[in-house]
Amino acid sequence: SPHAAVRRSARDDAAQCARLDENGMPTVRAIALAADAPDELAGSFRDMLAGDDATAAVRAIRAAVRLRLADRLHDQFAEILSAPAGTPDHARIAATAAAALGSIRTRASLNLAANAIDRPAPRVRANAVESLEMLSRSFDAARPNPADRFTEIKHTGEHRARANAVRALGTSAITDALTE
Fold this sequence. Notes:
Layout: H1 4-12, H2 14-17, H3 28-36, H4 38-50, H5 54-66, H6 74-82, H7 88-100, H8 107-116, H9 122-136, H10 146-154, H11 159-179
């Protein structure tokens, strides 16, 4: 906002504005704060990720993606995805973080998604395949080579990860055919 009083009010209410509705959707105030004070809102999301409430953490990640603030949480996603496999709640948060990587168009996210494919939780692996497929379209295929990873995943027993890998291989084959 061009008005200092509005910006100050938004900053002062950062914690309140980070609240999400019962479906995990950002509130109108959170949307306004994302425009006026994105660092403060991202800080509130970081606090939600650091807390003990898995549902709040998942909602924070999803809201950050919707508000285009996921790039500000990349370091937290890296921590989540590098932590030892733990409870089902941790796997749920890690799966959501792996899915969010697809919205962060950086080489660091591409590499993190490639590494997340090796996580033990099937949902994390499936979401990492989707993110890697999305990100591989944004960069040249030189590093990492996603087709090799998709071929590996295609032979696992995890249905969703396998389906995502087959779809990604099909999409890359179509893209290759169109560019030749």
